[in-house]
Design brief:
The chain has helices spanning 3-17, 26-31, 46-53, 101-112, 142-166; strands at residues 21-24, 32-42, 57-58, 63-67, 70-74, 77-78, 95-98, 116-126, 129-139. It has five helices and nine strands, in the order H-E-H-E-H-E-E-E-E-E-H-E-E-H. Helices cover 40% and strands 33% of the residues. By secondary structure, it is of the alpha+beta class. The protein has one domain (10-140): Beta Barrel (Small Protein B, Chain: A), CATH 2.40.280.10. The longest helix is centred in the C-terminal third of the chain and has 25 residues, at 142-166.
């Protein structure tokens, strides 16, 4: 089996398992250093789920807040369902995250520290359930961001050189 066939098979199995991301926050991986990841369920309304299945979501400015022992996802934009009626909720409303109590306490205590926050990394379906992967993160320094760019460009050049040598 060639490399392309293997990647296609992996993508097909992920899609069958329902783990294809609806939205990803690539900017967060560039801006922050990921300390710890959590998988959380999302409490959504019907039109929001349909809109997510159409792929209409943006995690760009999203973050997690803990209030009164509950975790909330804020500033995540889920576009109104086009075939929806008056029942469409506000696209940027706060949405409840479904996590275990200890995970909520851990996230809440770590957010209180200076320099740490919790941001969504990806939004996907696992079976019929909408899930969001959130991460406790710390901000990167400008020097670290430059290093990330250098490393990415070096990897890209290496892949291009390997591809050229195969021809």
């Amino acid at each position: 089996m060639s490399r392309l066939e293997a990647r296609a098979a992996e993508r097909a199995s992920r899609k069958a398992a329902g783990l294809t991301p609806v939205a990803q926050n690539k900017r967060a991986l560039f801006e922050y250093v990921v300390e710890e990841k959590f998988e959380a369920g999302l409490s959504l309304t019907g039109p929001e789920v349909k809109s997510l299945r159409d792929g209409n979501a943006s995690l760009q400015d999203g973050y997690v807040s803990v209030e009164k022992g509950e975790a909330w996802l804020l500033n995540v934009h889920i576009a109104p369902y086009t075939a929806g009626s008056y029942n469409n909720p506000d696209p940027k409303r706060k949405r409840k995250l479904l996590l275990h109590r200890r995970e909520i306490q851990k996230i809440g205590s770590r957010i209180q520290r200076a320099g740490e926050t919790c941001v969504p990394l990806s939004l996907y379906f696992k079976g019929p359930y909408a899930k969001v992967q959130v991460a406790l993160v710390t901000g990167k320094k400008t020097l670290d961001k430059r290093e990330t760019i250098r490393r990415r460009e070096a990897d890209r050049e290496a892949r291009a050189a390997i591809k050229a040598s195969r021809r």
